[in-house]
From TrEMBL:
Residue ranges of domain ABC transporter in the record: 8-238
Organism: Candidatus Yanofskybacteria bacterium RIFCSPLOWO2_01_FULL_44_22
SUPFAM superfamilies on file: P-loop containing nucleoside triphosphate hydrolases
Family listed: Belongs to the ABC transporter superfamily.
GO molecular function: ATP binding; ATP hydrolysis activity
Stated name of the protein: ABC transporter domain-containing protein
Keywords: ATP-binding, Nucleotide-binding, Transport
Length: 245
């Protein structure tokens, strides 16, 4: 599969819950190597779109992925009880038994990166402070990276991120998005991400889908996110979503 080749086609997608229309007549496509951001207000159907793309909910219309494509998903967050006696290592070993591969993937998502210049110390840090740690005791940023590592263990061609920085402080947000940029560049990975921050969309995405139950705009951020589209998405609050250069 070559760069720029179409890998996802969505046509006339509709989804309903309890008789309420959540997605209406939605059509778009994604090419290999794209970073597509999905933006819109709360209740716009962004997470519902992801569930439909993953085949988790009933829908009408067409969703067609390229054959043989591996699709990974990173949820916004998962609720883990602090007292749950499950370590990070045990969690990751549900998917991958090879500890060396787990450590390699954790390194790739930047966990313990402050020790990266000393490989032995880096591995020891991962084993003592991450793998042996209870999953519920991880910080928000660490947990997000572990969830990304979980998805990467499947060697996906496409990653879906549902607000990858929800609940993370501002400095941590920038770091997570830099990680996504690194994964995109290093692995030539196609990404679909739901984001609430249009500055992030302008910085990292090459295409944007504006969604409010139906498509409001679609295209490059610089052309699609005009004043009219932002007003349709966010109403009178559109001004606060304008980006800064």
């Amino acid at each position: 599969m070559t760069q720029g080749e179409n890998i996802l086609t969505v046509k006339n997608l509709e989804a309903r819950f309890d008789g309420e229309e959540i997605l209406k007549n939605l059509s778009f496509s994604v090419n290999k190597g794209d970073v597509l951001a999905i933006v819109g207000p709360n209740g716009a159907g962004k997470s519902v779109l992801f569930r439909a793309l993953l085949g988790l909910i009933p829908y009408s219309g067409k969703i067609e992925w390229a054959k043989g494509l591996r699709v990974g998903y990173v949820p916004q967050k998962i609720a883990i009880d602090r007292e749950l006696p499950l370590s990070t290592e045990e969690f990751l070993k549900f998917k991958e038994k090879d500890e060396a591969r787990i450590i390699s993937v954790l390194k790739s998502v930047g966990i313990g990166s402050e020790h990266k210049n000393n490989p032995e110390h880096h591995v020891r840090h991962l084993k003592q402070h991450v793998l042996s740690q209870r999953l519920g005791w991880l910080s928000g940023g660490q947990m997000q990276r572990v969830l990304i590592a979980w998805a990467l263990l499947d060697n996906p061609d496409v990653l879906l991120f549902d607000e990858p920085t929800a609940g993370i402080d501002v400095s941590g947000e920038e770091t997570i998005y830099n990680l996504l940029k690194k994964l995109h560049g290093g692995r030539n990975m196609t990404m679909l991400l739901i984001s609430h921050d249009l500055n992030i969309v302008y910085k990292y995405a090459n295409n944007v889908l504006c969604l409010n139950k139906e498509m409001i705009c679609y295209g490059t951020p610089s052309t699609a996110l005009d004043t009219e589209s932002l007003t349709k998405l966010y109403g009178g609050e559109a001004g606060i979503y304008k980006h800064e250069h």
